[in-house]
Structures are given as C-alpha cells and as structure tokens.
Amino acid sequence: MARKKTINIIKKVRSAESVISMILGILVVVVVGVLLFRYFRGVITKTKITQESEKAAESEKLAQQSEGKVPLPTKYTVQKGDNLWKISTKFYGDGFNWVDISKENQIKNPDLLEAGNELVIPDVPVRKPIATVKEGEQTISGDSYTVVKGDTLWKISVRAYQDGYKWPEIAKANNLSNPSLIHPGNMLTIPR
C-alpha cells in the first residue's frame, strides 16, 4: 500500500513536471528581464548624467577661456568651424599662438582640423608681433593725426601704439565705414 501511494505521488509529480518547468522558465525570464531593465536604465541614466556633466564642464571651460582663466596646459576638443587661430584666441587672447598649439600637437597641416579631435593647449607666453617704428618715422603721441600720402591705418597704429593690430580702434573712433579708404589731409582721432 505504501508502495502504491509512492507510485501515485511520483505519477502526479511527473504529470505536473511540465507545468512546473514552464512556471520556473517564466520566472527565470521575468527575473532576467527585470535585471536587464534595471541595468540598462542605470547605464542610460549614467550616460545622460555623464553627457550632461561633460557639456556643463565644456561650457564652463569655454566661459573660463573667454575670461582668460583656464590654467594651462589644458586639453581642448575641436568644435565644428574651429581653426588654430580661433582656438589660440580663446586661450591666449591672441591668434599668434596657433604655432605653439600646432607644434605641441605635431600638426603637419594646420588647415586640416577635425571636430572631435583633442588638442593639448600648451602653457607658453602670449605671442605678440613686434611692430616697431621704422627708422626716420616719428611716433604719434597726440590724440589726433593728419593723414599723409602712403599712410594706412596699420602704419598709423604702429606709430601711435607700437601695435598694428590696434588699427580697428582708430577706424571705430573715426566712424570709418571702409578702413582701407583714408586720404592725405584727413584728420583722424587717435583714441588713448
């Protein structure tokens, strides 16, 4: 009798075996699905947070660059439309340091920059072109100047400020719509 009961129990378990297997299979699939969902949700959230923090860091870096506060050396990711002159201007306030950036990064053709490339911005002194008054020319010390034959705003700026790149200040102070057109006899204001 005990043997008969045992056989009946075994038969019932065997008949329910496929149902139990199916339930366990569904349970495994649900557990794995929940784990994968949580994992990928966490990865996506971390990726978004990382991207947002990278964007914030880049924005902060650009803000600091525009204020000249970024400690050098640093790294910079090339943006669409960048060139070495623009990048140099961001970090040094002057484009002439493009040669230092090019040299530091061993750039063979400075005209070929690709967005996304990372550049090292070296800690070097700001380069300024040396503009000297030529022998025989006099410096301009007053706040006005009368144009003579052969003058350009560049030459006048060199004589007035020892920096030819300040010619836009003269053009602006005199409301010149075309800075290339100055004529002998024109009286120019030299901002100081």
Descriptive keywords:
192 residues, mainly alpha, Membrane-bound Lytic Murein Transglycosylase D, Chain A, two-stranded antiparallel ribbon, 5 helices, 4 strands, 51% helix, rod-shaped
Structure characterization notes:
By secondary structure, the chain is mainly alpha-helical. Among the domains are: 64-121, LysM domain (Membrane-bound Lytic Murein Transglycosylase D, Chain A); 144-189, Roll (Membrane-bound Lytic Murein Transglycosylase D, Chain A). The protein has helices at residues 2-66, 84-92, 98-104, 153-161, 167-173; strands at 74-77, 118-121, 144-146, 187-189. Strands 1-2 form a two-stranded antiparallel ribbon. It has a two-stranded antiparallel ribbon with strand order 3-4. Helix 4 (153-161) packs across helix 5. The radius of gyration is 36 Å and the shape is rod-shaped. The N and C termini lie far apart (119 Å).
